[in-house]
Amino acid sequence: xxxxxxxxxxxxxxxxxxDVISRHPDRYRATLLAAHRSVDEMETLCxxxxxxxAVMSDPGASAAxxxxxxxxxxVAVVSGAEALDALVADDTVDSVVAGIVGxxxxxxxxxxxxxxxxxxxxNKEALVSAGGLFMEAVRQGGATLLPVDSEHNAMHQCLPVAxxxxxxxxxxxxxxxxxxxxxxxxxxxxxxxxxxxAEACAHPNWSMGQKISVDSATLANKGLELAEACWxxxxxxxxxxxxxxxxxxxxxxxxxxxGSVLAQLGQPDMRTPIAYCLAWPERVDxxxxxxxxVAAGRLDFEAPDLDAFPCLxxxxxxxxxxxxxxxxxxxxxxxxxxxxxxxIRFIDIDRVIEATLKEVDLLEPDSLDAVQAxxxxxxxxxxxxxxxxxxxxxx
Length: 395
Ligand code: NDP
Ligand code: MG
Known about the structure:
By secondary structure, the protein is an alpha/beta fold. It contains 17 helices and 11 strands. The strands form 2 sheets. It has a 7-stranded parallel beta sheet with strand order 4-3-2-1-5-6-7, with helices on both faces. Strands 9-8-10-11 form a 4-stranded mixed beta sheet, with helices on one face. Helix 14 (310-318) packs parallel to helix 16 (349-359). The chain binds NADPH dihydro-nicotinamide-adenine-dinucleotide phosphate and magnesium ion. The site of NADPH dihydro-nicotinamide-adenine-dinucleotide phosphate has 29 residues, from helix 1, strand 2, helix 6 and helix 10.
């Protein structure tokens, strides 16, 4: 029986994970559920899955959950980020699903790495901001790192396994990272001026949380995924080719030196990569309908439009700079939150990121404190830019 900690249990990744787990009560048990402040959702999940620990990072939410679950003595409700860091390293956890959104997911994921757990990584922002530190913690802790992100999961599936259990890159020429292009694919920059958060979150193929949905619409997500692929598969950015594939059926490809290209295909349903990571190196049923390749009909591929979607170009530059992706990711989080609360326009998101990259002194963070300090500086600079835009728009 594998004991699984689901971080971000109330989110899109968390719920898909719990759906797969509930299909295999003989193999998996969710022993820890963690979220921020969604008390109603967490109560329902705790009653269904009866974890040993339920962690809310928000103290008020934690008190409210404890109150709601006072009749369930088997579930211990715990409060705060530090308690979560300790619990993911506990003996009651074998696998950790890193499904918290944003930089907030870094500390518990690092803790899982140091404790040598099997990490099912969805939270790409943590890896992108602290890649060197994180990969070192994985090595030193003897952790197993499995990518949940559908593209990186596809790459993992298309690569042989070396004797040390890691993906064998020996004969790989290039990685082909696919992008759906998001809901605004084909639009010009000027046609993006008035798009709303609701339109940006209406992804044509995937159902996901709000932040990653906006990231998909701006192509910032592909920039984050470029950095993610570099860390996970030890590649330089020029060894990764980005291709738009609007149907989201091919989830990425590996080009080998003999001219072969291996692709992984599947429905756009995160339960497939989650089930792959839970069962690896075996396979289990994910509850996903079979892919009807005839109904799908065609697979299209095109180059990304970097003029209409400059976030990807900014990420391609930031990735070459020390600490650049930490600053990129922090500025993007601030900008996306401001867009979702309708303080800035869609086309201001890349402006916030660009202004932040110009303002903050870029340097390679060599410790967790340094990563946190750089992330903070970037957030402050991005927030200042958002505030000045607000003043300008109101004036
Ligand atoms: P959601 O917004 O749906 O869920 C986010 C989860 O994180 C919620 O459970 C939320 O809890 C929790 N959370 C937020 N802040 C904190 C915090 N400070 N401490 C503890 N928990 C917190 O996001 P997604 O599931 O869409 O995405 C999660 C991660 O997975 C992201 O990094 C995303 O990039 C990545 N990913 C997602 C994919 C998808 O299909 N959704 C695909 C590939 C990667 P609460 O509800 O209480 O606020
Ligand atoms: Mg992805």
